[in-house]
Amino acid sequence: MEEPWDFEFLSRIADSCLSFLSEFVDDWLANDMRVSIFKILLSWLIFSLIAIHFAWKVYGNTVNDMYYRQGTGQNGGTPDTAPHLSGWESKAGDPPKTHRD
């Protein structure tokens, strides 16, 4: 009993997609101003993505090396702790704080 419902659901989805595509193709082939603007913006988007892709292929390692911290320590060249601080503790005379403070 579920098979006809599934087939009906799939056929409605397929019909909706086909009608959308046919309207899109009709609009695409029409020389309307909004279609021209859409074509220009779409080509600009595709061109930009391709340019970013090729620029990253060429300069990606250089950019990565510029921002990669080299050396030893917690984050590359930074020391594990600051020499004038004693970790989580505050000044020597202050009592340790609790959640109630």
CA-atom Rg in angstroms: 31 Å
Number of strands: 0
General form: flat
Q: Average the pLDDT over all residues and give the rounded result.
A: 77
Cα(first) to Cα(last) distance is 66 Å
Instruction: Quote the beta fraction.
Output: under 5%
Low-confidence stretches: none
Content-based structural category: mainly alpha
Q: Give the biggest sheet.
A: none
Q: Please tally the helical runs, counting DSSP H or I stretches of 4 or more residues.
A: 2
Region (Disordered): 70-101
InterPro entries: TCTA
Subcellular location: Membrane
Protein name: T-cell leukemia translocation-altered gene protein homolog
List keywords for this structure.
single chain, 101 residues, mainly alpha, 2 helices, flat, transmembrane helix, transmembrane
Protein model, in words:
Residues 70-101 are annotated as: Disordered. Its main location: membrane. The protein has 101 residues and is mostly helical. The chain is built from two helices and no strands. It has helices at residues 2-29, 33-67. The radius of gyration is 31 Å and the shape is flat. The mean pLDDT is 77.
